[in-house]
Amino acid sequence: MRRFFTVFLLTFVLCISLCSVALAAGEDFTVEEGVLTAYTGEGGDVVIPDNVTVIGEKAFADCTTLTSVTIPGSVKRIGDSAFLRCTALKSATISEGVEKIGLLAFSHCSALENVKLPSSLEQIDVFAFFGCTAFTAAVLPDGISVLPAGLYFGCTGLESVGIPASVTSIGDEAFEECAALTNTYYGGSEQQWSEIEINMGDDGNDYMLVSQIHYNSEMPVIEGAPNASGDENTPDTPPQEDTPTVQPDAPDAPDAPVEPNTPSAGDGIDTSTVVAVVAVVIAAAALFVALRKKK
Question: Strand, coil or helix: what is 239?
Fold first, then answer.
């Protein structure tokens, strides 16, 4: 009997150790049926688990210790305000597979540098990159048809933008306060450009319209911005001569539709972690019963 008690004790200790490891691995994320609803980790460089299909509303909002995030291809949608006011976030890797970026998703991420958007992207909601002042270049993927209102509002460091020929509409204030914008690369012809519905609002797209527009420039390689492979490059085309244009004065910025802070969700674990822990416990119990019967 003492022998069986010893075996059971060792098995129980093993189960507790495995459970502790599983819990430690999942405690940073609360995932419910594929939706990442809250992040409770310490920040730094974060890789989102590949069992996540949706990053929920405000999942990382106000996480001021987050410095980089890698979003896997399993994620189809980045929810509204998902990374709102992550002021230390400098790098965001968005993998192929992501189809939608929600309202205010990366708003006020003031340290966020140029982000490569995947070709799988179909929709970007309004003010998605509002106030990303560290942006210097932005390339929209082919297939996007609408540049929503306020997309790059307040991106004061934005110097170059690439717009594909698939775009048919540019929303109000998409480039409001982008006074540094000097080059717009367009994938279609001048005639196609003239057919785009450009909503002016309070002259919110003036900076884009007075920039140097390069027609028939598909997926331009812009200095400091990632190309299709994700590598940084320098431009193949020689720099354009400066044109003595007068930049319009930037109007006062309206209040951004910033949503109130949400209390941080409590620690949670992924459903798959729970299943793994239960499986280990059942296996240990089965082993104990088998040893008992053997006697």
Answer: coil
